[in-house]
Design a protein that fits this description.
Layout lengths: L2 E4 L3 E2 L1 H15 L5 E4 L5 E2 L1 H16 L4 E4 L3 H9 L4 H7 L1
Parallel strand pairs: 1-3, 2-4, 3-5
Helix pairs in contact: 1-2, 3-4
């Protein structure tokens, strides 16, 4: 069973550390994790890097980490950054 975490509306530089801490804590549970991106209105490079790093850490532990229902703003930003696959798998 997957745990679902709601992402905050603003994922800016100030949100990077709390996001990283939350993801680290959840990944230590060794359970699949879904991040709900429906509320995201802004995502910056720092949080994007945290999400990409968490995805890599999850893969190394053989844990599924996915973003479900990414907002239009989140989808646009990750696509512009060349990381569209971060949300693409969740849309299937």
């Amino acid at each position: 069973m997957s745990r679902i975490e709601l992402l905050p509306a603003v994922l800016d530089t100030a949100a990077a550390r709390p996001l990283a801490e939350m993801l680290h804590e959840r990944l230590t549970e060794n359970e699949p994790l879904q991040l709900d991106g429906a509320a995201v209105t802004q995502i910056g490079q720092a949080c994007l890097q945290v999400l990409l790093s968490a995805r890599q850490a999850a893969a190394a532990r053989n844990i599924t980490l996915s973003v479900r229902e990414p907002s239009e703003a989140m989808t646009l930003m990750v696509t512009l950054a060349g990381c569209g696959d971060l949300v693409a798998k969740a849309e299937n």
